Amino acid sequence: MNPKTEHIHIIGVGGIGTSALAQYYQSQGQVVSGSDAASSEVTDLLKSKGIIVHIGHNAENVRGANLVIHSAAIKKGNEEYDAAKLSKIPTKLYAQAIGEITERYTTIAISGSHGKSTTTAMVAKIMIEAGLDPTVIVGTKMHELDGNNFRLGKSDYFVLEADDYNRHFHNYHPTIAVVTNIDREHLDIYKDLAGVKLAFQQFLRNTKVGGTVIANGQDSNTREAINNTELSERRVILYNPADLARHKLGVPGDHNQSNAEAAYWVGEVLGIKKQSIAKSLAGFRGSWRRLEEITEGVYSDYAHHPTEIKATLQALKQANPTKQIVCVFQPHQRDRLNQLFDDFVDAFESADQLYMLPLYAVRGRDEGEGKTARQLAKLITSPKAQYEPTFANAFAKVQPLFNKDHIVVFMGAGDIDEQLRANI
Question: Does an H or E element contain 334, and which?
């Protein structure tokens, strides 16, 4: 930390990543303030920790700050950003700030198109229970962190979920780099699968000399990225090179078995005893919005990409073979729906009933026209989808199914979870 920096202001502090960063800076003795468009559980948590939180963006909020940090979505036109520039207050992207932290630690960075939050949570749990006392920033709330997504450790270890959106992870310099898989995701940034692969190759090249790359050997895109990246003077471990390794877990699904194997190998590289790793994985009960059981038989899940949807629904069907699987899905981001429309049509086959909500448009990323959720619902025949114009309509139809014969999952990366918790 720059000793001259005494007051750090974070624009958009209510985000999962930015809220963790705010807590990190506070733990380093900095005065931290932030702002967000609306109050939330996250902003309330930050306030309870003594972080100054402003609701609404106002130029006055940056007064007295020595450094202003913002996400890539905050640009010219934001009152606080413009005020910082006018006052010549240094500004920094969130990912750049995290990148500086990775340089100060022995960093374990977990990346991937899918599964990185769960894998990061598994790795953090393994390391904490083995006594390695890591600092942790993860993109989900963890039971082991009392519902938080940040932990300050006393050791030299830093466990980080390495976000691939907008090339954030290119700022990170890990000692151990994990790739869970590579898929057609964030195509508004990368354009196509080839662009996604190139982005992951750059992340892999950032692995420190003498470090270790741990990558999913069952994923052909990941293998290709590894093969096309110069990784001399780094150890490369391809896990699950043939059959899927099996672990005793408290969460269902082959995708979670794959996540667990990645976490297992991190533990191996760190020298943690196999018995300790196994015990920790067996006690893993998932995390916020990753097949999270809100009440008996009712789940909330963050899946918003066809690959994730398939994996989640298959896991629920495998774990509950005699029950009807009911899915309420809210598509997330117009460009994703446009680019992967045909894949979405075939993503829900493991569900017995499907209720489709309107698209959740992402502010600042969803300009122009494109495919709609209503169009998608018309084309899905397995199961036959039913379009519902509001959450209230869908909830009224599935609430009678909250019983022992059904599993109901509310799925998406928009505000569907917030609406579920307000109604449950």
Answer: helix 334-339
Q: Are residues 133 and 251 in the same domain?
A: yes
Q: Which of 234, 256, 282 is the last residue of a domain?
A: 282
Which pTM value belongs to this model? 0.86
pLDDT digit string (tens) for 294-305? 999 999 999 999
How big, in percent rounded to 5, are the helix, strand and coil portions of the chain?
A: 40, 20, 40
- Counting the structural domains of the chain, the total is 3
Q: Is 371 helix (H, G, I), strand (E, B) or coil?
A: coil
The single-letter DSSP state of residue 297 is: T
Comparing C-alpha atoms, which of 282, 218, 296, 289 is closest to residue 251? 282
One-letter identity of residue 356: M
Structure tokens at 419: 């609406």
* Residues making up the chain, counted from first to last: 424
DSSP labels for 266-295? HHHHTT--HHHHHHHHHT---BTTBSEEEE
Whether residue 204 contacts residue 237, with contact meaning beta carbons closer than 8 Å, is answered with no
